[in-house]
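REQUEST ID: PR-0412
SUBMITTED BY: lab tech R.K.
PRIORITY: routine
TASK: structure prediction, single protein chain
INPUT:
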Amino acid sequence: MKTLLSLFGVIYLASCASVGALIDGGTKMVDATVSTAVDVSGAVLNDVSSITETAAETVQGVAETVADEVDRQTDELQDTPEGK
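STATUS: complete
OUTPUT:
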């Protein structure tokens, strides 16, 4: 009987160690997953920011080009004689 109790004690201690290792591994996996999600989110935000900045610069450039062209054309219209 004493041997049987000793055997159960050894199995119980080994099981507890396995469960502890499993819990440790699980928490490390969750930590790595969360860290990866944060890194990916940051990269996506940086990309979106760059795309938005490029689009804004393009729109500004187009608006300036249109404004310059309209200004040039109105100057031409003002320079023509009105009698014709």
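NOTES: The first helix runs from residue 2 to 79.
REVIEWED BY: pending
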